[in-house]
Amino acid sequence: MIIPRTMHLPRFLSSPSLWRFLVLLWFGVLFWLSSQSHLPSPAKFEGVDKIEHVIFFAAGGMCFLLGLRLAGFAQATKTAILLTVLFCGAVGGFDEWHQTFTPGRSGGDVWDFTADLCGGFIGAFLALIAERWLTSEETTTSAAR
Length: 145
Hints:
This protein has helices at about 15-35, 50-70, 75-100, 110-135. By secondary structure, it is mostly helical. Helix 2 crosses helix 4 (about 110-135). It is elongated.
């Protein structure tokens, strides 16, 4: 569902603290998932886990970049995208390393790591779109300011 540009959003959605909290929550969920010995795979085709990595890291990258940009950091677009991809790469690398210590998991998968980087790149672009929308005067309620 697409929300019309004239729809008013609560001010808290423009708060960098919200997005930073969501990054911490996202990381906690990732750590918990990586600590599981066996994860069920709902799909029946090869490579579905790469799609899951891309989607999950796009969400984390989006929250990370919104937390930065709404706080006034990384205002240059190239810098923002680079920082987001580096963040997702660092977290993805940590995740792969962490899985090497989890029984039943292999970890160290370069293709999972690549999917994490791709997700970060996609998340950065989604965040730039969301930022424009969140900071638009048309979508922010004056009563909630």
